[in-house]
Design goal:
The complex is a heterodimer of chains A (about 110) and B (about 110).
Chain A lengths: L4 E3 L2 E4 L5 E6 L4 E9 L6 E7 L2 E5 L6 E5 L5 E5 L8 E9 L7 E2 L3 E5 L1
Chain B lengths: L3 E3 L4 E4 L4 E7 L6 E7 L6 E6 L4 E3 L2 E6 L4 E6 L8 E11 L2 E6 L3 E6 L1
Parallel strand pairs in B: 2-11
Antiparallel strand pairs in B: 1-3, 3-8, 4-5, 4-9, 6-7, 7-8, 9-10, 9-11
Classes of the chains: A mainly beta (about 110), B mainly beta (about 110).
Chain lengths: ~110, ~110
């Protein structure tokens, strides 16, 4: 186990709704990244947080937003959900001074109907 | 051209076989490289980092060729439990920071 946890495990939402996904990083890890993985694809980078600041963003629209808290846990918020947002959302944590290896949580499977 | 490209497979091999996967990347400024393993409907798990000098971990050997911009993974003496999708990952500079770019993954099925 990586020590990275995510909640909820599964979620079903309706188009147009908003969703918040949560991630607790591995102890001592101050960097959290979020990824979206559609079926049959590799994970796509959404954004990264380092010490509570956004530290890099992928090609996702502004309705994808996030937060990181002082304990380094993180949230991913998605507004105005679209059918194409249905995917596995993964969070990964990385520690300072420990190379750049990332460790993934089990993911949240989001279905938008 | 995709930033990281992998043959999606599937590779169907018998137990005990040796199998090799390749991955190419487009950004020559990429800094670090990894292979992750992903089982069906599970999260990716780090298999190994890839170093310029090459590295080996038991039956697994990874190599990096910076001049040709490709990474390889060799699995010897395949086991049934090696059946999974293998993701090539490249840590690439973008907008003043680095981000992981994943390939689409190569599916491996080891047959009894």
């Amino acid at each position: 186990e990586t020590g990275v946890t995510q909640s909820p495990t599964h979620l079903i939402k309706t188009r147009g709704q908003q969703v918040t996904l949560r991630c607790s990083s591995q102890s001592g890890h101050n960097t959290v990244s979020w990824y979206q993985q559609a079926l049959g694809q590799g994970p796509q980078f959404i954004f990264q947080y380092y010490r509570e600041e956004e530290n890099g963003r992928g090609n996702f629209p502004p309705r994808f937003s996030g937060l990181q808290f002082p304990n380094y846990s993180s949230e991913l918020n998605v507004n105005a959900l679209e059918l194409d947002d249905s995917a596995l959302y993964l969070c990964a944590s990385m520690g300072a001074g420990q190379g750049d290896e990332q460790y993934f949580g089990p993911g949240t499977r989001l279905t938008v109907t | 051209r995709k930033e990281v490209e992998q043959d999606p497979g599937p590779f169907n091999v018998p137990e005990g076989a040796t199998v090799a996967f390749n991955c190419t990347y487009s950004n020559s400024a990429s800094q670090s490289f990894f292979w992750y393993r992903q089982d069906c409907r599970k999260e990716p798990k780090l298999l190994m980092s890839v170093y310029s000098s090459g590295n080996e971990d038991g039956r697994f050997t990874a190599q990096l060729n910076r001049a040709s911009q490709y990474i390889s993974l060799l699995i010897r003496d395949s086991k049934l439990s090696d059946s999974a999708t293998y993701l090539c990952v490249v840590n690439t500079p973008t907008s003043g920071t680095y981000k992981y770019i994943f390939g689409t993954g190569t599916r491996l099925k080891v047959l009894a």
